[in-house]
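Job type: complex structure
Entries:
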Amino acid sequence: KAGVTQTPRYLIKTRGQQVTLSCSPISGHRSVSWYQQTPGQGLQFLFEYFSETQRNKGNFPGRFSGRQFSNSRSEMNVSTLELGDSALYLCASSRDTSYNEQFFGPGTRLTVL
Amino acid sequence: AQSVTQLDSHVSVSEGTPVLLRCNYSSSYSPSLFWYVQHPNKGLQLLLKYTSAATLVKGINGFEAEFKKSETSFHLTKPSAHMSDAAEYFCVVILYNQGGKLIFGQGTELSVKP
């Protein structure tokens, strides 16, 4: 069974731009969660989607948004990029709820210049 | 509030010696706890999980952890370190009262010397 895939793996953007990251969960998994990882703040929860609905949300500004499609694939979008948005963005999928084991993708490394 | 604290940001051991990575948690109810490992440029992999069954939990790659309620600890151990164990390790608590949100500790970087 294929694991969680994230595209692209690396991105370089400039301040003020927007970016869209994609995550394909493991086949049969319906829950997708997103995390931001930075050296200073560590791993922080962004949001979780289940059956195309946002089920849970972390403490991030409205510039961070996401969505989930009927095939469970998910995208997250960051608008008006700031230097502090430079981070590794990780996606994780689980079968039904995030209570179950979450399987992580390799991440997308976003650099904002 | 529920949280986890990893007591060491960096641990260095020699190959073949024991590994101890420390984690304390705070929770107003019986928590579920996990240890994840992250190798460089890779995603996180679940090592083991505690969900109120046996207090001694065995995971992959020879790792185990013991849940001690009296000490609010969930330390990760391995009897004999291998070079391939060098990675960052995260202790994680799940917040059932917040829809299953995961809260990560700050991480412990494990170095293994030959």
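Summary: The two ends of chain B are 41 Å apart (CA to CA). The first strand of chain B starts at residue 3 and ends at 6.
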